[in-house]
Predict the structure of Diaminopimelate epimerase.
Amino acid sequence: MQINFFKYQGTGNDFVMIDNRSNTFPKNNTKLIEFLCDRRFGIGGDGLILLENHEKYDFTMVYYNSDGSTSTMCGNGGRCLVAFAKQLGVIENEAHFEASDGYHYAKFENKLIALQMIDVDVVKHFDTHEFIYTGSPHHVQLVEDLEHFDVKTNGAKLRYSDLYDASGCNINFVEQMDADTFSVRTYERGVEDETLSCGTGATGVAIAMHSTFKTDAKRVNINVLGGKLTISFDIENNMYKNVFLTGPAEMVFGGSIEV
């Protein structure tokens, strides 16, 4: 079997992209998906994304973790899929699509892609951290000297701790840089390691920092290892609405692989 693919990345969060509008990809083959995401034996990626038809919107987003498991929403993956859809000619400068957490709108802003995320009405506050759901579950915790922090060890401990059930949680470690800028490093479940960027995590950090009065900005800059993201939002009746995750999404290469 020969599979045609493209590789995309958004601030270093990289994905194997496959056009599955013909519905020929074996979606239940977990081992195949894991192989395609393997950086040594396969193509390599933090996840695999299928672009599929939708009866109402421009397309459907189907996302898999690099271990082959199905996953919740991926913000950077969503932005990359919008770029892929434009490359395929499915859209022009705007997109309407459905993902695991529902409907999304996206638009091109110069060379960046702004993706509308779900509304957020609850941020759970704890003594050591915040918990927020932005299409995926996120633990947000302030730390000092983030540059030298052991993200993989500490992230794994929290991801598998009694704080969360068997499905786990993504773990974000945060350091405030100035009034509206935060640096973030994220341990992602499914990847089971630190990634260079996490879009839903960056979104969660921005909202969590606003909700805990670390910033009063409604446009928050997030530094990740793979670059910079911007999260903007409005607040209506204690709900975060019109939440947009904005950043780059670029094609790296394309090809075919025999499996």
Observations:
- The chain has a mean pLDDT of 97.
